[in-house]
């Protein structure tokens, strides 16, 4: 049949790390700021740099900054 036991894979879905809520809120702010004023649009590397600056200032944990 189509569901042979040897072909099944377990534990693959959702195995990645989740973005923390506070980091997601900052990312939403960055995106919305770029939508409101296109001159303030940030690239992905610039967003990461901003998140790292927030981590160095103690607002968020540096381990929570996505790569």
TrEMBL record:
Highest taxon above the source species: Eukaryota
Name of the featured protein: 17965_t:CDS:1
């Amino acid at each position: 049949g189509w569901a042979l036991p040897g072909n099944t894979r377990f534990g693959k879905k959702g195995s990645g790390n989740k973005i923390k809520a506070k980091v997601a809120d900052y990312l939403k702010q960055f995106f919305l700021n770029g939508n409101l004023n296109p001159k303030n649009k940030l690239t992905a590397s610039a967003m990461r740099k901003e998140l790292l600056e927030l981590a160095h200032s103690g607002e968020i944990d540096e381990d929570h900054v996505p790569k």
